[in-house]
Known about the structure:
Mean pLDDT: 82
Number of domains: 1
Radius of gyration: 18 Å
Largest sheet: none
Structural class: mainly alpha
Number of helices: 11
Shape: globular
Strand content: under 5%
Amino acid sequence: MIEHGTLIAAVLVGLLGGVHCAGMCGGIVTALSLGTVRAPGVDAGPSPGVSWPLLLSYNLGRLLSYTAAGAIAGSAGWFATRMMDVNQAQLVLQVVAGLFMVALGLYLAGWWQALARLERAGGVVWRRLEPLGRRFLPVRRPGQALAVGLVWGWLPCGLVYSVLIWSVASGGPLQGAALMAAFGLGTLPNLLLMGVMAASLGRFLGRRPVRVSAGVLVAGFGLFMVVQAVFTVGL
């Protein structure tokens, strides 16, 4: 089973990654919270205020997609460990995951944009999935919001990709699913608040000191993962 400390760390990464979530998902979350997500040319009428059923349903769908992706990534890592010594494979995967976390921290801080290229590569798959999400517009019911969340969970995102690499090193499909679920829960506070107070929260998360602080903390965690793996090999 995956350690509780690892799950807590995944929650914290999701929370700190809110500076990125605001840009990637802030628009649709704000629209959902106001019940204004619609197809082009469709008038949603006057805004009824915060629509919690739509907002919560969307986020549930997003978390389910994250969990499924984590199970797939964990399975890939499990098969990789069968190809070589289990301990050695897990250490290698942990180093790779740690390096991705460092890259994520630098990305969040705005110091290195390598993960942006990974997001663009993921856009190839997203171009095939995004039209599927449009079939559920306009969003008027929780079921539609859930479906949109299920699709939006696969949006190309360097933050999600980095945690998926971490899931590969988690040890198996259940561990990978748990890790991504914990990460998804960590993203919830920012996105729920974004739905309620989009303008002020967006400005706060967009401030450079906030982004740099979050990036440094995430990069520091990645370095810890790498050092921990190297120290284990040294023993």
